[in-house]
Write a structure and sequence with these properties.
Elements (H helix, E strand, L loop, with lengths): L5 E5 L10 H9 L4 E4 L6 H15 L3 E6 L1 H9 L6 E7 L10 H5 L11 E5 L5 E5 L4 H5 L5 H10 L3 E2 H4 L15 E6 L7 H11 L3 E5 L6 H4 L1 H15 L1
Parallel strand pairs: 1-2, 1-3, 3-4, 4-8, 8-9
Antiparallel strand pairs: 5-6, 6-7
Helix pairs in contact: 1-10, 2-3
Length: about 240
């Protein structure tokens, strides 16, 4: 029998591992082996090293799932990791070598994220970034119940500004060699939907799911749609 595939989920900027809770509940209910690994949000290279450690600990084939900036991290982490068999991008960046998350955000008009970001100086010339907690629900999670969105705002993990401005290190992006799947909302205010469509098409995604009127927090507001895509990817890879 083929070896079972473990799903490893990687959160993005201004979020944390609990953003995957509903997706994990759904996957576990289907008998899928899945877990969320912490993402420090310090730099693409160091964050990818953390994911590689999680992959190595699995000791078997892995399907990597990344949200937002986590897409850049899984793209890098999968480079040279022979146990990674596929990539799922959830409202996520899928960069080419040398591209940055900020460049991809600005590729098409529509993002209002920059207007809501607040800086926290780190003392070394760089900054931690957070989304203004009062503005977070409307910017990041407009289709999530308000009380839940406010908790997400209060628990968001800051991202170091250099992580978003760091050129993608790997010479060859993992999505050019591995099968990929994309899911995102049509009301994403962080990454313009046209940018998400562009990256999915460029990667040759086997399937792209657009969730009508869903926000950047599509995995929170529409966990079944995200879990369905992941389950479909696992079925394809089986």
């Amino acid at each position: 029998m083929p070896e079972s595939i473990t799903v490893v989920l990687v959160h993005g900027a201004f979020a944390e591992s609990s953003s995957w809770n509903a997706v994990l509940t759904n996957l576990h209910g289907r008998g899928v082996d899945a877990f969320a690994t912490p993402n420090p949000l310090r730099s693409v290279a160091t964050d990818a090293d953390n994911v590689r450690s999680a992959i190595a600990a699995v000791g078997g084939p892995v399907l990597l799932v990344g949200h937002s900036y986590g897409g850049a991290v899984i793209t890098e982490a999968a480079s040279g990791a022979n146990s990674v068999v596929g990539l799922v991008y959830v409202a996520a960046f899928a960069p080419q070598h040398g591209e940055t998350s900020l460049q991809l955000t600005a590729l098409f008009p529509g993002s209002t994220l920059g207007e809501t970001v607040r800086r926290i100086p780190l003392g070394d010339g760089t900054n931690d970034l957070i989304v203004d907690r009062e503005l977070y629900p409307g910017q990041f999670a407009a289709d999530v119940p308000p009380a839940e969105a406010r908790i997400s705002a209060a628990t968001q993990r800051p991202v170091r500004d250099e992580a978003l401005a760091e050129p993608q290190p790997a010479k060859t992006p993992a999505w050019s060699a591995l099968p990929s799947w994309f899911v995102f909302g049509t009301a994403d205010k962080n990454i313009p939907v046209e940018a998400l469509r562009f990256m999915a098409q460029r990667a040759g995604a086997l399937k792209t799911v657009e969730v009508p009127d869903a926000s950047h927090s599509v995995m929170v507001s529409n966990p079944v749609a995200v879990a369905d895509l992941i389950a479909g990817a696992l079925a394809y890879l089986a």
